[in-house]
Amino acid sequence: QVQLVESGGGLVQAGGSLRLSCAASGRTFSSYAMGWFRQAPGKEREFVARIRPRYSAGYTYYADSAKGRFTISRDDAKNTVYLQMNTLKPEDTAVYYCTAGLSGGTYPTEYGYWGQGTQVTVSS
Predict the structure, then answer these.
(1) What is the bridge-based pairing of β-strands 118-123 and 10-13?
(2) DSSP 3-state assignment of 62?
(3) How buried is residue 104: exposed, middle or buried, by Cβ count under 10 Å (0-12/13-18/19+)?
(4) CB 118 within 8 A of CB 7
């Protein structure tokens, strides 16, 4: 069983930065692929980024909307995954969810554990 708790969301102006954190419980954190998804009002949940266990093929992967602006990283010693978001745009406004799974794909159904979400609002 894995429990996930996100933090770091908030209100930021366009062009600004935020760093989201996701603290995970459990002793097997390092064996999980970790992902970030987001969901804006009236829209489906969409993939943002994922990071696989260390030394895995395809260690990190990003949605096109996140490439060059967002960076996902993990600290297995702290059971924490991060999402550094730079050059934020109003269209990045959404609830951001941390998730854990075994395969590390880009579909929500590939992940078995989810956090409660953290709101990110980017003002223009």
Answers:
(1) parallel
(2) strand
(3) buried
(4) yes
Separation of alpha carbons 100 and 33, rounded Å: 6
pLDDT tens readout for residues 48-57: 999 999 888 7
Are 39 and 92 a contacting pair, CB within 8 Å?
Answer: no
The rounded distance, in Å, linking the Cα atoms of 120 and 40 is 10
Which residue's entry shows tokens 């943002």?
48
Q: Phi then psi for 20, rounded to 5 degrees?
A: -90, 145
State the Cα–Cα distance between residues 57 and 41, nearest whole angstrom.
Answer: 34
The arithmetic mean of pLDDT across residues 32-37, rounded, is: 97
Using the structure block, give the residue that is written with the tokens 């609830």. 95
**Which tokens in the block code for residue 26?**
């459990």
State the Cα–Cα distance between residues 48 and 95, nearest whole angstrom. 12
In angstroms, what is the C-alpha Rg of the chain? Answer: 13
Which is higher by pLDDT, 111 or 104?
Answer: 111
